[in-house]
Amino acid sequence: MKFSSIWKYFLCVLALILGSYGEPLIDIGVYHNQVAMTSALKLLNEAYPNMTYLYDIGESMGGLTLWVIAIAGELPDQHMSLRPEVKYVANMHGNEVTGREFLLHFAEHLLSNYGKDDNVTRLLDNTRIHLMPTMNPDGFEKSHVGECYGEFGRFNLNGVDLNRNFPDFFEEIEGETQKETRAVMDWLKTEHFVLSANLHGGALVASYPLDNLDPAKKILYLSLRDLSPYSACSDDDVFRFLAMTYSAHHGRMRIYYETTRYANFSAEYGFKDGVTNGADWYAVSGGMQDYNYFEAGCFEITLELGSCKYPEPDMIEPLWKENQVPLLELLKQAHRGIKGIVTDTLDDSAIFNASVRVVDRNVPQRTTKLGEFWLILLPGRYTIEVSKPGFRSELRAVEVPPELYKTVRLDVQLYNGAFGLLPSNLILLTVSVVPNLLPLKLLT
User: Fold this and answer.
1) Cβ-proximal residues to 431 (8 Å cutoff; 6+ apart), any chain
2) H or E segment at 164?
3) pLDDT of 419
4) Distances in Å between the alpha carbon of 144 and those of 32, 151, 154, 206, 352?
5) Distance between the two ends of the chain, CA-based, in angstroms?
6) Domain limits at 368?
7) How many Cα atoms are found within 13 Å in the side-chain-facing hemisphere of 374?
8) Do residues 349 and 327 share a domain?
9) Measured between alpha carbons, how far is 201 from 250 in angstroms, rounded to an integer?
10) Are the C-beta atoms of 126 and 405 separated by less than 8 Å?
11) Same domain, residue pair 226 and 331
């Protein structure tokens, strides 16, 4: 028997033994370096082969694998029509480590509770979740436990801050695009992500786009001595809601005096409701969350999960318990708003790369190769424009309900130019629902 076969057999037997006693597969009292993290991911993959797909998106500058584990109730290795793809990315800054451990434990939590917990089961039956425990494994390997502040280990092997390395919507980014950054950029081209979060440490707050703003506005605000101006995008209501969803389900993040302790190391500074606009905290160019939004139409927020970047191992479990519920609740928001398929009236074929946008909002969604699109929207009435060069644009008025998992299905056929271009059509679609007060409370 080959060594690889023996190893797989051992993992399966170990998983069965531990599972039969209700013991976790992943030790919560230790930090997992690259070797240990890889083993943990492989153990989960072997224990739950029908629910997990372990893959990588490339390597770090130091040659370490950038692992991702995809989890779903069925077919975790492939996309299913209209099943949204969501992701969490951690450890972008190598010395901000708790998110790395949280994603390992979140993966096991999802897998071990499927079929037992209704919230977990429903999410996995309707979503494919991609978890990337570390984007900067080289930086992690250099970091030291117990170092709460500072920058040692923050950067990649080339000394580059990966959260300043993405192409920026507002200004030119200097320096070479790093392998880790390029890997994520390519990943966004192969998977059509609807929702995402980037897990950090060093503060306690949920931050949302935009992180940057127009240079001319920067100069204006500086002249007014405003060093941190609010930079709103046209989906600001949705982003703020996503951030508040996380903070509202976190034991401490939503409490002002708790966030006061961690923000900017100042006892006089805090975050109302535990959330902040990125630029309103401090402006960042080359950030990952803005890139996700502008380039891929993915709604990503940044989660700062504690004041200490690299706490002692005995703090992992209590911090994980604080974040277990909000990590789940945030991903459920992918099932809010509108989804559908855009096809060609000529032959009913899917239309790729059509623009689907809310009228008066700037950033459109682009349809997948299957013609799919998703729009995360809060309750209300919206006018949706669907367009592509060579086709007649279509308008639809849609009423979005407040409940989760009540996403409005909106399929649109575009008239091919072969029929001649006609004025856009406006069709009203309404959905009658019983209001759910939870999201409305979060909006106030």
Assistant:
1) 399, 400, 401, 406, 408
2) none
3) 57
4) 13, 11, 11, 25, 47
5) 62
6) 338-443
7) 23
8) no
9) 15
10) yes
11) yes
CA separation for the pair 151, 79 (Å, rounded):
38
**313 and 30 Cβ atoms separated by less than 8 Å:** yes
CA nearest 355: which of 345, 347, 346, 366? Answer: 366
For residues 200 and 267, state if they share a domain.
yes
> Which of 292, 319, 335 is where one domain is finished?
335
Single out the residue of 236, 193, 235 nearest to residue 363, CA to CA. 235
Residues of the chain with pLDDT under 50: 1-9, 11-18, 20-21, 263-265, 267-268, 421, 426-444
Taking the mean position of all CA atoms in its chain, how far away is CA 439? 19
Let me know whether 343 and 277 are in one domain.
no
User: How far from chain centre, in Å, is Cα 129?
Assistant: 9
Using CB atoms within 10 A of its CB, is residue 65 exposed (0-12), middle (13-18) or buried (19+)? middle
362 and 270 within one domain: no
Check whether residue 323 and residue 360 sit in a common domain.
Answer: no
**Total domains, the chain:** 2
Together in a domain, 205 and 128: yes
Helices of type H across 172-261 = 179-190, 215-223, 236-248, 256-260
What is the rounded distance in angstroms from the CA atom of residue 23 to the CA atom of residue 421? 64
Question: Any catalytic annotation for residue 304?
Answer: yes
Can you give the CATH number for the domain in which 68 is found?
3.40.630.10
Q: What global pTM score does this model have?
A: 0.90
Last residue of a domain, one of 286, 315, 335: 335
Which of 344, 342, 246 lies closest to 302, judged by CA?
Answer: 246
Distance from C-alpha of 200 to C-alpha of 284, rounded to nearest angstrom: 15
Q: Are 155 and 161 in contact (CB under 8 A)?
A: yes
Q: E strand or H helix at 18, and its extent? A: helix 3-20
Q: Which residue matches tokens 């989906």? A: 235
- Catalytically annotated residue among 304, 322, 329, 385: 304
Amino acid identity of residue 326, one-letter, is P
Which amino acid would we find at residue 379?
Answer: P
In this predicted structure, what is the pLDDT of residue 256? 79
